[in-house]
Task: inverse folding
């Protein structure tokens, strides 16, 4: 099999992977997917020097995928997962990945819906921004230092909507407008956990500002999803590791039979 020089390798071909594949193809790139029939090692034998290795698997599968990543690919890794932080790539000797903090969603049978612009950092940022813009998704280049705050803000959005939503249901607008005390109680505990996971204090005010901007960008977005109990259990496990007091998270967990 002969491939063009420096294609983009795509690891994960679900809904989100499909959006990026379409964007990259529209922008003129060759995309080589990793599939069940052709594993990461098999693909690495075909593609020795990829322009980007974009990992679009879910957060539960990320660690095993990065563990399997060939050494020759580690300088080209791109990541888009929720609940992502530097510790997730540092432990796999990936020092400067391309990171996209995705602020659009794609569900089966529904067109891609952008909420706010997607910030991208790292060596492959220009490539991904150009590709996303080719399919009408707003994206911006930011610095590798700033991307940590962007990741924290996305984590805050996801965790507040999911965890507080276990109590309230409804939309993010209904959560913020009608249950703001609950949302901020959950948010403050989530940000304390983010401080621990990042290893230094994060910008809480900026994270709340971005969360509110996203709430306003898609006010009808539902709160709790299928992953909410798992996200809550994961947050509680991190809090226990760090000895962080999280009474609101613990109360919600007891009410909804969520255990670590």
Result:
């Amino acid at each position: 099999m002969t491939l063009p020089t420096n294609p983009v390798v795509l690891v994960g071909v679900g809904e989100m992977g499909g959006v990026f594949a379409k964007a990259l193809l529209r922008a003129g790139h060759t995309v080589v997917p990793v599939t069940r029939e052709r594993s990461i090692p098999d693909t690495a034998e075909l593609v020795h020097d990829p322009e980007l290795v974009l990992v679009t698997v879910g957060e539960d599968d990320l660690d095993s995928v990065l563990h399997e990543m060939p050494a020759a690919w580690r300088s080209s890794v791109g990541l888009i997962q929720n609940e992502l932080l530097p510790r997730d790539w540092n432990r796999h000797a990936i020092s400067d990945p391309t990171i996209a903090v995705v602020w659009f969603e794609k569900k089966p049978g529904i067109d891609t819906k952008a909420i706010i612009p997607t910030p991208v950092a790292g060596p492959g940022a220009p490539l991904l921004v150009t590709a996303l813009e080719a399919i009408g998704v707003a994206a911006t280049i930011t610095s590798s230092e700033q991307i940590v705050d962007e990741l924290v803000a996305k984590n805050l959005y996801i965790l507040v909507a999911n965890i507080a939503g276990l109590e309230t249901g409804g939309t993010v607008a209904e959560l913020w407008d009608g249950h703001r005390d609950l949302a901020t109680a959950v948010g403050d505990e989530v940000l304390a956990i983010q401080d621990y996971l990042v290893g230094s204090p994060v910008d809480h005010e900026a994270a709340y500002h971005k969360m509110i901007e996203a709430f306003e960008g898609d006010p009808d977005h539902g709160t709790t999803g299928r992953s909410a109990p798992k996200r809550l259990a994961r947050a509680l496990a991190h809090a226990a590791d760090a000895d962080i007091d999280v009474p609101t998270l613990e109360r919600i967990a007891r009410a909804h039979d969520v255990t670590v």
